Each structure stands twice: as C-alpha cells, then as structure tokens.
Amino acid sequence: MPVQSKKEIIAQDIIQKIRFAQYKPGDYLPSEHRLCELYGTSRETVRKALAQLTSLGLIQKIRGKGSLVLDVQNFTFPISGVVSFKDFDKQQGKSSDIEVLNLSERTSPSTFGGHNLNRRAPSYYVEHLRYIDNIPSVLNQEFLFKEAVPIITKADVINSLYSYLERTLGLNISYSTKEITVERVPERIAKILKLTDDHYAAVIRSMSYLDDTRLFQLTTSYQRPDKFKFIDFERRKNAARS
Fold this sequence. Notes:
Residues 4-72 form the HTH gntR-type domain. By secondary structure, the protein is of the alpha+beta class.
C-alpha cells in the first residue's frame, strides 16, 4: 500500500472531524499556526492540506478570519473530478467494497459513446462491482490501453486503480469527459445490480486522458437509480485574475 503523505493525513483527519461534527458548518478551523502545532508540521504542508479541503468544497478561506467549514453535502458520485471510487471514499473518510468480476485482455472498441476512436487497441478489460451498504450499486466496465497500462492485477483495482496508475506506473492523468444518460440496460447488468422490472439505470460514459492528451481509458458506469445522486461543487475562476 502506498505511504500517505503528511498533507493527506492532515486532510483526512480534518475531514473526519467535519464528518463527525467536531467542526460544524459555520465554524472556523484552528488557525494555520495552531494546525502546525497540532500536527507537528510546516505551514506549507498545512496549506496544501487546506487547499485539498477547499477543492472538495468542505471549507472556504475567508481573508482575515481563516477557514470556514461549509454546509455542503458530501458527493455520492464524483461526477466532476478525475478520481477513482476508492480514492474518493478515502478522501471523504468512508469505506467501500469492490468486487472484481472480470479482468482479461481484450481489444478496445473502435467507437465509444457515439465517438469514433479511429483505432482498436490492445487493452485490459476490467469489470468491477461497488457495494454501498452491502447493496450492489455501481457496475464499472473499463478498457485500459496496454500502451499506457502494460500490466494490472485484481489487487490494483481493489486497492485503488488511480493510485496504482499514478504512483506505481508514473502516469500523469490529466482530464476526462463524461456523458450521463438514463437507459434500459441488458438483462445481465440488471441482475447484477438487482434492478426492478423496468431495468433502467443511470449510465456514465467517461473517456480519460493523460497530460500529453493521449486517451488511455474508456469507462461505462452503470448505477442503480435509487443510489445515484450527485451534487456538483464548482469554484468560479475569476477571469480578471487569469
């Protein structure tokens, strides 16, 4: 398992304190100086941890006052970010169970989500099921191109796919595009997710890219409608500062 950085340890500890109402919405976190004392670290490390909490929408920096805890619901699905479920749950102080149903070598499709990819590439095909409250809730089907991901194991998928790709393989994952629809799904998927007779699910199709703009991953995510919810937190970039 990758060793956590001091920044990650601090961020996750504060997240837990927010989650269990030690820091409530409307409260200010201790000052940066006090946090440095509490965690025995530098101000730069504390600021990086606070920046992570800011990006998650959990706090807002108020000039002259400090870091205000926001009254923002936790995401159910990380719809805007490029992050694995395992990493997202870890950031939110939650746990998840993942079952790998299939890991095999296949050729990627030439079209995906209405897009012509202009090629078929040797890939790993990964199918994994995520449980929420012991209910099968999210089924992911992924193609990972072997030119970027030469090897992958079930343990890599379960422990954290993106941590493996970034920390072990050294990939620089940059951005993804996502399309969300509601569709009637095939019988097999309906059975896996234990859907009702109408067999409808939320479907998210993602195309993920490296920082050199290479497409390396195709993901189709099927989600139970009764478990699918997202709240999009977005910070506006001030054009005058760019």
